[in-house]
Amino acid sequence: MSKKNFKETLKKVDQFKIDEDTNIVELIKSLKNTGFNAKRLALACEIYKEMIIDEECIKFFGLAGALVPVGLQRIIYDFIAEGFIDVLVTTGANLTHDLAEALGYHHLQGSIDINGINDEVLHSEEINRIYDVFMPNKVYERIEDFISKIKIPDNQMSVSSFLSYLGSQLPKTSYSILRICYDKEIPIFCPAFTDSGLAMQLGFHYQNLNLNHFKDMLKMVNIAWDAKTAGVCILGGGVPKNFIMQSLQFCPNSATYAIQITMDRPEPGGLSGASLREAISWGKISEKAKYSTIISDVTIALPLLFWYLKKIKK
Amino acid sequence: MSKKNFKETLKKVDQFKIDEDTNIVELIKSLKNTGFNAKRLALACEIYKEMIIDEECIKFFGLAGALVPVGLQRIIYDFIAEGFIDVLVTTGANLTHDLAEALGYHHLQGSIDINGINDEVLHSEEINRIYDVFMPNKVYERIEDFISKIKIPDNQMSVSSFLSYLGSQLPKTSYSILRICYDKEIPIFCPAFTDSGLAMQLGFHYQNLNLNHFKDMLKMVNIAWDAKTAGVCILGGGVPKNFIMQSLQFCPNSATYAIQITMDRPEPGGLSGASLREAISWGKISEKAKYSTIISDVTIALPLLFWYLKKIKK
Amino acid sequence: MSKKNFKETLKKVDQFKIDEDTNIVELIKSLKNTGFNAKRLALACEIYKEMIIDEECIKFFGLAGALVPVGLQRIIYDFIAEGFIDVLVTTGANLTHDLAEALGYHHLQGSIDINGINDEVLHSEEINRIYDVFMPNKVYERIEDFISKIKIPDNQMSVSSFLSYLGSQLPKTSYSILRICYDKEIPIFCPAFTDSGLAMQLGFHYQNLNLNHFKDMLKMVNIAWDAKTAGVCILGGGVPKNFIMQSLQFCPNSATYAIQITMDRPEPGGLSGASLREAISWGKISEKAKYSTIISDVTIALPLLFWYLKKIKK
Amino acid sequence: MSKKNFKETLKKVDQFKIDEDTNIVELIKSLKNTGFNAKRLALACEIYKEMIIDEECIKFFGLAGALVPVGLQRIIYDFIAEGFIDVLVTTGANLTHDLAEALGYHHLQGSIDINGINDEVLHSEEINRIYDVFMPNKVYERIEDFISKIKIPDNQMSVSSFLSYLGSQLPKTSYSILRICYDKEIPIFCPAFTDSGLAMQLGFHYQNLNLNHFKDMLKMVNIAWDAKTAGVCILGGGVPKNFIMQSLQFCPNSATYAIQITMDRPEPGGLSGASLREAISWGKISEKAKYSTIISDVTIALPLLFWYLKKIKK
């Protein structure tokens, strides 16, 4: 781009105001005219909106971090219920915690600053800590009860097929991610499934279990291959990010839309914090893609993103 | 606290939902029942609300980071206009940029990802970059014009008195922080004033200028000393944080309320990222204080905080 | 601990010096008497030293991040060759890149600041970028050649058994992690194996492949179960961290030693950045454990750790 | 740069080894052939070496963060003693702590993980906490004794002249930064001097004190103006970074060499974390400059940098 052209792309920063009439859509519109992460958030909102409007777009959604324990289960449930997600890739931990909530148990919140409360005491009390969220160990016992009673259709079925089966066994009235994905026929991929409490319970009870991970890997590649248009939204990073990205290399047009919300940064070189731009070199994201990385705790940025999408959909 | 007591303090994490009726006050209420930074944001909203309701509370506000260039000038202006700030401590850069906007110039926003646009080209085009916000160098020339025409009442006046005078010279119709602070008689402290483009222009034009920094230091200590109740809200960290904190050591009850929004972290040991808890050891914050640090870009968290305060005030 | 006792635990910070006679062991000793991350690094060096001296200690090692591409393959190779690792848990990416190096290909380094070089150009040149490290796409073609010629002993063998077989097929003269683990009979666990270029090549060529992940999960639990003493060193975080940690819950004494080198932080609640203290609540790390988290790029801290261990071993 | 040229700039990543003969110079040489922050550290070492060899280079050094409390006083002292610094810009806090050490008092280190030790207790014990470093409050009393006895030559002298005078009053045998700067006639600039415990003691005792900050600002601009070649090394960020940078705009050739060691990042838009590239747009750093930002805790990277410089100087 020539010097002259660049200057013409610059726009005035609006010193926006917030008043009694402000709503989420207007706030995001205002943030679009700023910079730093506020602008990135606004850009992400617009990009996701386009992903929804674009009927050909297959929407990949990556889920890492303790999002169910912290209270975002319902938001993710609603992303799926609203049709904002076509393919879900997640850590096993979020499925384990989703199952716990579906079975009627709850996570707890508390201050980690209270004097004299420490991890040694928590251990003796059998309360597991996830930063400032807590889960009594007994929840695992109830998961075990549940797991011990299911009838696994096939020891060699793919992980995603098993997760779909698992969803079918959960109460329809719950706000379970597993259940809504079953109901809406949204595949759940979990490439590191054995890295979870849920899989450990399964392994202990069904010693011959060999859920197929390779079938899922190929299925995911095929979904990407068949996608005329692909969009991706990554919460956190980790395996869900990489698994979506490696598949998008096989999408004829690569991803056209890309969003990541993360606290990870590019400089240490890990994939979690890698810029979305970098994915262009790999052919994972298209040169013409619209993309935005928001450096933010997901717990703050995701509700805003959903609120915006919900409001504009109405 | 005994084991039993701690368990009783734990509360259920609500898997909150967002729907058509959600407003900012309800969203913050929902986030209060989660964890991680979402909960910290909700806590900060509640704490600031209490600071406002508590009529004896002197509200100290620290401003670091390029908040005016990025588009938060009006939000900060409204914090002052609404009576949410009693004492402002800022970097000189924000005052320089505030002056630029007050004089009718604007900051620009643009993508830093556009191919072929780089800092070498920007330099030859005389456009200064602040991450993805831009300011033509010629703005400084206009600041210089303005500075060359003012009549400094006293070469040895305190920095805060000078800033008050400067505010009085700016158009009442602007959304200038300098102007609204003058109008509302809110002192502005700027302990590193000579570390700014504004001070450089002053220094070049008024070679005998020796604005008094020590007077301000003592004035600030006296304000803290006289405060029956003190509350503090820090954006970023840096000198504004430390300057407020060192003064609060002289507040008889230390700070009763404390909020910080920052991306800095405690581990490298700098004051910017130091936990608010640490300030208790120094007597800067009270043992009984309510406090919350939000690890977030200010550009995302501050508009939410203001939106909440504005809404509950109505 | 009583007030009096705490005061007695405080030690003088030494204002250490570096001179001509300084060596790595003395430097680390000096850093022990400081604070912040320097002290954490020194503590980690001491802890790893104890792990090595303690003959009963099973040393778990977690490997996440692009450590082979960046040039740490030989350091990790030597960790294994020296006997500093008993169980390796890794991402699939590091194995893919290890294979590339073992087959004679190289990663490249370059500046990401050079004007006019961008990811679109890299894509058209078929050069994949990993921050400031680069890998020509053709390397994958050679991996494919290699993969197409191997004879997989059993389509349902465990991932770790397969990786051991793969190591046996590589040149003994290379500094391959896969090879040295085969030679030294060190098991490699890769719970998210299908999240890698290597696994994709395998999947494309061997459509009936269903390497068993559950067997590895149980094998890992058994190793932890049998360990009288356990020590853990985590580079980065991610699946390797969680997989080691979930297994350590079954270690009778939990981990006695724990080290993590990472740029991730606790506040966003993810497991990667979770403090090692938190793992005490889960019974993954012992209440009596010695542990240290270093907030540092692995590329800086790991060579220092290895250098120290190598020197004291002599 | 053309496509072909870029490819030619790429170099092989060496899988370096560490053995018995490794020394710091060879380690840095090895790290040069890697990527991520290790390579940035190696680059910084080379750049500083060039700054020292280049006899025309004026070496600006910015000091932010609690570097004296944590144990780096002697390293910084030796940077000055060795002639590696020509102009020092610092926070007031480091000077306050330097004075404390010069007067014979010490900082303490301790674990912040010990159960039951908390900031409330520390406050009642009058021990101030700086992450995991501690300072008894009584140190301030002794600083007060010292301050009450000095004879300030001129109430309106510049801050840097005052600091030089202060250095002259300290024992020659100490490893005080203030003292060595006096001895070597290295100016110390402290633009936010009144934001420090030292300045508060001065203000309380000498009510008419009005140390001149503007004179220093102009002096600093003149030093930059006169520099044929300028090099800059920033520890942390904050006011010292900005104060050096704003002056370098007046250096005819801008900075030719630039190094920053920091944990701050560019995305939130603050100057502390701004990339060194960005400074090119402002004319602070030359288009032709060699520069390197190391994302690292200063406590780890600075000793390595000094060790390297000391070794190659020999």
Order of helices and strands of chain A: HEHHEHEHEHEEHHHEHHEHEHEH
Query: What is the domain total for the residues of chain A?
Result: 1
Number of helices of chain A: 14
CATH topology of chain A: Deoxyhypusine Synthase
Instruction: Please state the average pLDDT score of chain A.
Output: 95
Envelope shape of chain A: globular
Counting helices, strands and paired strands, the structural category of chain A is alpha/beta
Q: What fraction, in percent, of the residue positions of chain A are helical?
A: 40-55%
Strand order across the largest sheet of chain A: 7-3-2-8-9-10
Per DSSP, what share of the residues of chain A sits in E-state strands of 2 or more residues? 15-25%
What do these coordinates show?
Four copies of one chain form a homotetramer. The first copy, chain A, has a single domain (20-105, 159-197, 211-313), classed as Deoxyhypusine synthase (Deoxyhypusine Synthase, 3-Layer(aba) Sandwich). The mean pLDDT of chain A is 95. Chain A is an alpha/beta fold. In chain A, a hairpin with a 2-residue loop joins strand 5 (127-130) and strand 6. Chain A starts with a helix and ends with a helix. Chain A has helices at residues 3-9, 24-32, 36-53, 73-81, 92-102, 119-125, 138-149, 159-168, 177-184, 197-205, 213-226, 238-248, 278-281, 298-313; strands at 11-12, 57-63, 87-90, 108-109, 127-130, 133-136, 188-189, 229-235, 255-262, 285-295. The longest helix of chain A is centred in the N-terminal third of the chain and has 18 residues, at 36-53. At the C-D interface, helix 1, strand 1, helix 2, helix 3 and helix 4 of C face helix 1, strand 1, helix 2, helix 3 and helix 4 of D.
